[in-house]
Amino acid sequence: MKAHPSVPALLRFALLAVLLAAGCAKSVPPAEEPNAEAELSVAEADTSPLAVQAARDGGEAIVALTPELIRELDPDSRFSLGLDRAARDGFQVLNHKRVMLATSRLALDSEGRHIVELLLPLRRPMVKKIVLFNDELPSSGRSSRIDGVLSTYPSVRVFERSPSALELAPAMIADTDIVVLDLPIRPGRFYGEVAFVGAVLRAAAKANVPVLLLDRPVSLRQYAEDGPLGDVSARGSVASYFPTVAVPNMTPGEIATLFNTRFGLQAELEVLPLLHWDRGDGCEPLVAALERNGTSPQTNLDEWSRYVTASGQAAQWQLVADLLPPALSPAVVESGEDASLRLTLPADGPATFAGDLESLLPNGMEVVSAESSISVSFAGDIPPATTAFLIWAAWTKDRPEAVPAGDETLFASQALFDGLRQGRNPQEIIRRWALDPARQDFVERRSEYLLYR
């Protein structure tokens, strides 16, 4: 009597077959003349259930490995960046295409490799141009290995765009067949990246060139959105390229879908989404993947890598710090999983600032004063824009000359600071922005563009 393998044994056999096949596929470079009909479409890659035929009773039985079953049997398969997915496929969707890459020095995959290290060595596709978002990183990061890789490809033209000059000239996108957009949105200084997404889509739409966006996680885990809606009059600025709330908490793919659809850019956009990620995860799956692959973002990577792996309270406080007056020299202080905000008091600052701050911040936020600094901490999750605005209110109390114009801040709301200048109660200003019909419409329609739970 013939013995039959048990179901667990079949599952192990099937999983082994899948993993071996995946490993072999990853190790073999794409053929120089691939069959175009065999190329994976962006929409189908990595999303259809895997099935492996197992030999049982003459080979009649089939063990189906669904993504859910693979996650259960192979924990390492739980999370993938859009870049991870494209690289596993050998960037086949780009074969025989002239590519413009729009990215920054922060675009790491789950093994700590940068997209230019993965894409430039391939003979097909042909990367013609790279537009780097100038993320104003420390000099040690800017002289990283990425610049060394770029220097070995002199035929590839490299352009840099800063937050003050985001628009792409026609020459940057001419003579290309597709734009690849891979742009992490940092927990702090995120407005420039968001506006850069809009600038790339606008240029691609004008040139009638399709865009493939490789999606990435957003760092904030809790808040759906926060802050006032940006002024329509500020449209096109780094803070309000298209009017969104101050902290939209959307991935690059979701932001691009919003800009492209609601604001009528109508670029030919394809988003290669994250796998096995939802909003409660933040950047923690990326950190875990880096560590599983033997890369510690805190020690082994270039200094800039820490910006793409911040999560939890550190990410929330970093957003608060980014929205604050530069005169306070805001800085995030981390202690294990906890974090706090440190403000340095200038000599000409208001003497009552600490007391005003303590009276305005919500119950539970702890304000500790030192001789020349103030520390703000909180045990729970922090609404970044609301917290930052209350600190602004304390900083400018009884000092209308210290209130900036709305277009000089990353809130991009003139009414917000007009209220402070006129001496209105900060809580009343917050209540008014919450009841703003245009903001409510944005919040209600925002869900139409979310790709993840």
If you had to describe this structure to a student in words, what would you say it looks like?
- By secondary structure, the chain is α/β, with parallel strands linked by helices.
- It has three domains: 7-77, no CATH class; 82-216 and 251-287, Rossmann fold; 311-443, no CATH class.
- The chain has helices spanning 7-27, 67-73, 82-88, 115-119, 139-142, 145-151, 170-173, 191-207, 252-262, 284-292, 312-322, 353-360, 384-396, 414-421, 426-435, 437-446; strands at residues 50-53, 62-65, 98-103, 126-133, 157-161, 178-182, 211-214, 226-229, 245-247, 269-272, 331-335, 338-344, 366-369, 373-377.
- The model is unreliable at 1-68, 138-143 and 299-303 (pLDDT under 50).
The radius of gyration computed from the alpha-carbon positions, rounded to a whole number of angstroms, is 24 Å
Largest sheet: 6 strands, parallel
Number of strands: 14
Beta content comes to 15-25%
**H-E string:** HEEHHEHEHHEHEHEEEHEHHEEHEEHHHH
| Structural class category | alpha/beta
CATH topology value of the largest domain: Rossmann fold
Number of domains: 3
Q: How many helices? A: 16
Mean pLDDT score: 79
- Quickly give the CATH architecture of the largest domain: 3-Layer(aba) Sandwich
- Order of adjacent strands in the largest pleated sheet: 5-4-3-6-7-10
CATH superfamily of the largest domain: Uncharacterised protein PF07075, DUF1343
The end-to-end span amounts to: 51 Å
